[in-house]
Amino acid sequence: MSLITRFCLFTGLLMGYALAQTPPTDLLYGHIEVHADYELPPAGSSIHSGWKLNVSYNKNDDFNDRTQIVRMDPETTVIVASPRTTQLANGNAITITSAVSRLGTVGSALWFFPQANVLGTPFLGARAVMDPGIFQVNFMGNYTPSVTGSIGLRLVSMTGTGPAAGGRFGLWESDGSTLLWYLDTSNGITSADSIPTLPPNAHSHFNWGFTKPGTYNLTLEASGRTNPNLSRHANQLTSAQKTFRFSVPFSSRLQTQATIRLGLSTDTLRWHCLLEDSTNAVAYAPMQGFLEASTTASSPVYSTLPGAVRQMPLTFTSAGSSVANIVGLEPAQAAAGLATGILQGDQVKLTLHSHSGPGVFALLNSAGTASLMTTADGIGSGDSITLTGSTAMSTIAAFTQTGIHRVTFILSGNPSSGGSVRESAPFTLVFGSGVTANHDYSTWRDSFERAHGLAVNTLASASADFDKDGIVNGVEFLLFWHDMDPVRSDAHLMPMCQRTTSAANFDFLRDTYKDAIVEGSYEINAATSVDLISWTVRSPRVIGLPLESYETGAEAGNAHGRIMQRRLRILTSPGQHRFFRFQPTFR
To answer: pTM score, two decimals?
Structure first.
C-alpha cells in the first residue's frame, strides 16, 4: 500500500551554486565509478600533469557517453556500504565463504559490493577515459606499443579505523565458478595488488569486500607508459595517486553493556551525550544508538520491581571518549568530555525527566540492591545521580516489561564562574527491553499499545492515523527516531528543511533496520517539488543525481551507523522555490 503524507515543508530560496570543490556527498547506492582521466599534456609540461582521478557517474547512465560524465572529488565523497551489502535478499547475513576465506574466518561478517547491479547497493566499477594510442599495453609487467593502449590501477596503501581494527579489503571478479583476485590486503599490500589493464573508455565492475565496520581510505595509483611514436612525452612512465574514501556502518546496537559519556563544550558551553560501545570502538549520539536490555534477572530492590526484569549494565561518566569511531558528534568534542574547572566541584547532575514505555523503569546501583531513580512512584527531584570529575558510576537499567522505552534526562551543573545553573535540553536514551534494534512494526505497535493502555491491535493499521495529527501510524514507525509517538499529536516533530548558501536541505533520520533501502515492506522516501503539483521522489530505484538532487548523508562525526542522519539535498538556481515531503510505502 502506498500513500502520501499530508505533511509538507516549504521554503523560499534565493541562492546560486558555484563551487570550486564538489560538496560533501555520500554514495549509499547507485551506479558510480572510481575514475581515471588522462590527457597528454603539452610539451614542456610534466608528463604526470595529465592525470585526474575522481569518483564519477553519468547523468544518462550511458557510460559510452563522455559528454554526460560528472566528476566528484574523492576528498569530499564517501562510498558507504548500504544495508544490502550485509544481507541477502532472503534476509540471511552475508558472511565470508570458503571461496573468499583469504579475507577472514569462514562465517564471519562481510560487507559485499557485488559486480552485478543489485538494487540498494553501490554498483561500483573502475573507469578509464583517455584517447586511444596514448599508452602502451601492459602484459605480465611488460609494455608493448599499441594503437589502443591501457593503464593500470594499483592499491598503494589502506588506512582508516576499519583496517586499524583488523579489517581487510579485497577486490575480485567472478564468472560464476572461479574468482580472479586483483586486490587483497590479507597478506599485506604489494605490487601485485593491481588491476593491470584498463583500456580507453574502460568501464569494468568488480566485487568489493570489507570485513570490519569503520572507515577505509584506499590510496590508488593510476599508471601507464606512453607509446614511443608520440610527438611529445614519448615512451615515458607516468602515474598519479588519489585516496578514495569508504565507510562501513556500525550496527547502532549496544548490547550487553554500554558507557554513557556526558560532556560540556568549553567554547559553546553546550551539553552532549554519547552511548559508547567500547568493544567495537564506536560511540553514538543518543538518537542514533539503540540500547538492548536483554538480560533477564530478579531485582531484590523492593516490591515495585517484582520478579523478573530486563536489565542492562550502564556506566555513567563525564570523561571524554577515546574510541576511534564517533557517530553524530565531532570526535574532538567527544574526546573532550567535561573539562576540569568548568563546573563547581566538576559535578554533573543527571536528572530523570520522563519515561515512555510499558511498565516501570528504574536505574539501580551496580549490585541491583538499591534504586537510584525509578518511575514506580512517579518522577520527582530525587530521581537523579551526581557524577564528580572523571569518576565513573556503575549502574543497572531495569525494566519490568518488555518493549521499547524512551528514557529522557536533563543534565545540569553550577558554573565555576557563578551565575545560574547551566542546564541541558532534554535528551533521550532509547532502550529495547527484550527487543532488538531490528524489530518490526508488530513489535513497535504492541509496545506503544501497552505503554498507553490501548487494546491489542488498536494500532494494527499502518495507514490509519490514531492520534489524528495528520501523520499515519506507519510514518510514525518509520520516523521513530524523531521522537514520534502514534498516540500523541506530534506533527511538529517532523523534520524541517534548512537553507544554505548553495542548497535546499531536508534532513531526517533513516532507520535502515526499518527501511533497508531495498523496496521492502516499509519504505520511506523524500520527495521535492517546485510547484506542489509535480513531485520527484528519490528512492533506491530513482536515486537522483548526486550533484543535482540526491539523498546523501548529513552525519556529524567520522563514522556511520545503521541509524543514519540523511539529507535530501537540492542544489538550486537563483530565485527557485522548493517544497519537501515524505512518500512512504507500506506493503
So the answer is: 0.94
